[in-house]
Structures are given as structure tokens and as C-alpha cells.
Amino acid sequence: MTATKRKLAIVTGGGSGIGLAIAEKFVEQGIEVVIAGRNQERLDAAQQKLGALCHAIACDVTDLAAIPGFVQGVIDRYGPVDILVNNAGANMKKDFTEVTDEDFQQIILTNLTAVFAMSREVVKNMLQQQAGCIIHISSMAAQYGIPKVIAYSASKSAIDGMTRAMAVELSPKGIRVNAIAPGFIYSDMTAKALDSDPERKAKVFGRTPMGTMGQPADIGEAAWFLASDAAKFVTGVVLPVDGGNSIGF
């Protein structure tokens, strides 16, 4: 094996939005990227856009039993995993009393249990190399209270705690673990949601000191920083990329 082996990253939910922006930044930096998600068509379109350094593999992270096979398949085909970005996630907006046990469990499964299971399998491989970088995607919902997203808030608050616990246990073994907490990031969906709710839109921009929404590429840049040697002494942090929203008044 040569010392110049290209780094390999897995990005879950990599077919669109923030996941795609992270994959795009990694490819731009010469990192080989496996994008995973449920929608093969969307993944294939993203792969076409990103080119030869990108590989698209369908994987439903909520199918916990399939995760070990997925990770092993990536390793068998492309070699050891250097970077894991746990970006796949789901949200649900409902009044507190309307959220069923099934609703709650489904969000926890997608946003937390699947992140744990994917990380565990990748870490088994990273331990053999005594090196690696894991990045979780957290949320403003873990920084302060947002109504009608109780399950999502619970899952993302747990991600922050898991980030710190994983960092303390794994960093002595060469594996850095960090999280990014995006603020309001532009997408067709968020733009539509805010445009249809002027009061919420005013609130969002009113408490964001920089006065704008972020772009998916802003999260891509943060992920690249955390994955790069520039962050070699950074572990266990939850990095807000939010234009100041989490400290705004």
C-alpha cells in the first residue's frame, strides 16, 4: 500500500441538500466519497454531478440489520473508511400531544439509533487503522427549544451527548468525533416554508445576527475543515454554522 492512498468518506443522506454539498466539497478536495441514501435515482443523479470520485450505494439507515453489510461492502470494494458523515435524518412537525409512540420511535431510530449503528460499524474498521474522523449533523433544536419538534429535538440533543462521549472514548485511539449544528440553511423546502409563514420568517431573520440564511455549501466547508488536518487537534465539539442564530436575541 502506498502512502498516498486517497482518503475515503461515507456520507449518509448524500443525494441532496446538505449531504450533497458535503460530498461535493470532499470530491473537490480529492476525497473519494460513497454517498448513501434510500433513493437510488437521486443518488445516481448526484453521482453523475460529482463524477468518478463519487460512488452511489443505496442504504436505508433505518434498516439496522443491513448496516454491517453495507459498511463491509464499502470496505471490500473501496478500502478502509477514513471519514464518516452521519447526515441522514428526518424531521416531524406535530403538536406535542399528537405525537404517537410510533412517531417518536421512528424519528429516534432514524436520527439517533441509526447514527450509533453506522458509527459502531465504521469505528470497528477505523480502530484497525488507529485513525479516523466522524462528523455527526446536529441541529439548532439541540441548542434551544423549538415548538412542535419534540422527537427531533430529543434525537439531536442525544447526538450532542453522543458526540462528546464518543470523542472521549475514541480520540485516544486516533479517531476524532465532532458535530455540526446547522442554522437555517437554504433549500427549496425551507424557502417555501418561510415564505408561507411571514411571522416565522421575521423571527428567523430577526434572531440571526448575519441576517441571511446559510447555504448548503457553508456546511460543506465546515465538514471539510473538521475532516482535514487543519482540525487535527479538534474533537468533541458541536460547531454551530448558523450566522449567529444560536446566540442571537
UniProtKB/TrEMBL annotation:
InterPro entries for the chain: KR_dom, NAD(P)-bd_dom_sf, Sc_DH/Rdtase_CS, SDR_fam
Q: What does the UniProt keyword field contain?
A: Oxidoreductase
Entry-linked Pfam families: adh_short_C2
Taking the record's annotation, the residue ranges forming a coiled coil are none
Origin: domain of life: Bacteria
Database matches in Gene3D superfamilies: NAD(P)-binding Rossmann-like Domain
Which SMART domains did the record assign? PKS_KR (SM00822)
**Family from the record:** Belongs to the short-chain dehydrogenases/reductases (SDR) family.
| NCBIfam families per the UniProt record, alphabetical | PRK07231.1 (NF005559), PRK12826.1-2 (NF009466)
What name has this protein been given in UniProt?
NAD(P)-dependent dehydrogenase, short-chain alcohol dehydrogenase family
